[in-house]
Amino acid sequence: MIDLMVVGGGPAGLATAMYGVRAGLETVIVERRPGTLDKACGEGMMPHTLAHLERLGITVEGRPLRGISYVAGSKRVDAAFRAGAGRGVRRTALHAAMSDAARTAGVKFILGDVDGVTQDAEGVRAGGLRARYLVAADGLHSPIRKALGLTRPSRGPRRWGIRRHVQISPWTDSVEVHWTPDAEAYVTPVADDTVGIAVLSSGRGGFERHFEAFGELRARVEGHPHGPDRAAGPLRQNASTRVAGRVLLVGDAAGYVDALTGEGMGLAFGAAELAVDCVVADRTSDYDRQWRSLTRRYRLLTEGLVRASAHPSIRSRLVPAATALPRVFGSAVNQLAY
Ligand SMILES: Cc1cc2nc3c(=O)[nH]c(=O)nc-3n(C[C@H](O)[C@H](O)[C@H](O)COP(=O)(O)OP(=O)(O)OC[C@H]3O[C@@H](n4cnc5c(N)ncnc54)[C@H](O)[C@@H]3O)c2cc1C
């Protein structure tokens, strides 16, 4: 019987496992994909996200992010992070750094696909292993959340994301968000010769189709080599609760609103720490309340912005309003950054 089994070796699973071994728990990660993992992501690490990595003793290669800029046609507004920078980091670089650190700390890795969970008063059985507790960090469409009957229908706008890396010298040290009537494009510098462009929209379809509307941005990157596209969605996912007996949901598996405000990884790291604290204290029933409290401010702001921007008349006025009220914009950005 091991202490903690973590299903999913993305950022949430790796952070959970690291907090687990730090707390003295024998911890195993089961991940179904081999090698260094990539994923559709804007790759913007907010200052609060970086703070978690620092606490875990992990440094990652990337480019500093000084703030967030909104752009629509000729309108532009910039907000700086007030206490420290964020960082643009490729998911492959993040995964390599986190899994190296986890291995060094003593986390064991198993390649496998967990397809079900059973539990009793003493422990959990899954993927041929038995553990005292299981953390499901198995992503947006969490098979374990579904298997336990915790997935709930999500009300509100449904959106998808698609990301492309373009080989070009970054022209910005902020996350630049370009708004059109139907989609946003998030430009994040991630290396000295690379920017990531993630397009979020309420429609499915390839990168090229969505990118057509971004005239100026498109012209800037036209002709530069790019890597393969990666897509994800629908983004909005809902769970009735994040605890079922000895199983706890962490990261996107716990529920997700939208990538619009870029705090997914930071919240995943925060929840990883809470989940391990609850396991160590043998009080898993506290975790759901603590998760709600940790994520409340982010969920409310993101939900409000997604719902408002789904109305064409409000959407078209968002960037002009932020430009007219830069202090309000700066304050909202900094509410989400820490
Ligand atoms: C387009 C887009 C842009 C985004 N931009 C940002 C951003 O700029 N900043 C930010 O912080 N966040 C951003 N996010 C959110 C961020 O990507 C997620 O919050 C983050 O990846 C969550 O990590 P996770 O570990 O929970 O899930 P994942 O990274 O999805 O990892 C889950 C892992 O579980 C594994 N798995 C699944 N099922 C099983 C199984 N049955 N058995 C074994 N393994 C399994 C998968 O293979 C995967 O490796 C963005 C998301 C999208 C879609």
From TrEMBL:
MF terms (GO), sorted A to Z: FAD binding
Domain FAD-binding: 3-207
Family annotation (Pfam families): FAD_binding_3
Superkingdom of source: Bacteria
InterPro entries assigned: FAD-bd (IPR002938), FAD/NAD-bd_sf (IPR036188), Geranylgeranyl_reductase (IPR050407)
Coiled coil: none
Signal sequence interval, chain numbering: none
Xref: PANTHER family: GERANYLGERANYL DIPHOSPHATE REDUCTASE, POSSIBLE OXIDOREDUCTASE
Stated name of the protein: Oxidoreductase
Organism in which the protein naturally occurs: Mycolicibacterium arabiense
